[in-house]
């Protein structure tokens, strides 16, 4: 038990488990090992079914609540239900992103107005909306973590509109940190290295990126979802109490390399 993190029985909302490959699922396992009480949100019924099976298989007792981050009413009713059941929330993990497939193929310059707005709404504004919804429940202070990617500040073929959404997400983390800090609520982003998940399937150059990282990253390997999960647990717990507004790379060091 990682009790030095002081997460025993803390209520933590996890948004974004689609299946057992989701980064959010590894986050859940790490937080569970640290003794946290988990509250999952899902968008689609099929994710809820998978989630319930995973919880059963892993003998984890947790609440499962519907929340579509594109829909304000859905966010309001999800957090009202969380408040009713748990009163207080100590942490929130935002592991949600989506863009239209056609906007990840071809050139960024061809992104449609609608595709640009959709990627921003789902992948960046959603953090602002859920931070606002959870704030009143974090009366004892709290920690929020979101997932970003290197495409926020570097050009990667096939990441396109999602890179621009991640740039907005990282800037939102800084502005939110400033708003939430006086309430003792911290917020940070983890910039994860490439990990084979459902969302990663949409990135056409994904296999190429994986092999480049293995070849060039200081650790000469890719990272696992478990490593991202453990860093999230670190950011949720007391050991990181002085850290907010940061983007922390869990990428085997790949981001520091210039021309390799
Ligand atoms: P994933 O497909 O397992 O998770 C994405 C989740 O977003 C899914 O659970 C999906 O249901 C959810 N989602 C999408 N639209 C939603 C909506 N409107 N409302 C609620 N939920 C919605 O893939 P993942 O790789 O685990 O992605 C999690 C996060 O990690 C994303 O922000 C992604 O950009 C980020 N990330 C992934 C990688 C990678 O290589 N896999 C690297 C860096 C960052």
From TrEMBL:
Keyword Lipid biosynthesis in record: yes
Position of the signal peptide: none
Listed PANTHER family: ENOYL-[ACYL-CARRIER-PROTEIN] REDUCTASE, ENOYL-[ACYL-CARRIER-PROTEIN] REDUCTASE [NADH], CHLOROPLASTIC
Family: Belongs to the short-chain dehydrogenases/reductases (SDR) family. FabI subfamily.
EC number per UniProt: 1.3.1.9
The UniProt record lists the keyword Oxidoreductase: yes
Protein name according to UniProt: Enoyl-[acyl-carrier-protein] reductase [NADH]
Active-site annotation: 149, 159
Keywords for the protein's UniProt record, in alphabetical order: Fatty acid biosynthesis, Fatty acid metabolism, Lipid biosynthesis, Lipid metabolism, NAD, Oxidoreductase
Pathway: Lipid metabolism
Alphabetical list of SUPFAM superfamilies matching this protein: NAD(P)-binding Rossmann-fold domains
Catalytic activity, as annotated: a 2,3-saturated acyl-[ACP] + NAD(+) = a (2E)-enoyl-[ACP] + NADH + H(+)
GO molecular function terms listed in the Swiss-Prot or TrEMBL record: enoyl-[acyl-carrier-protein] reductase (NADH) activity
Single GO BP term: fatty acid biosynthetic process
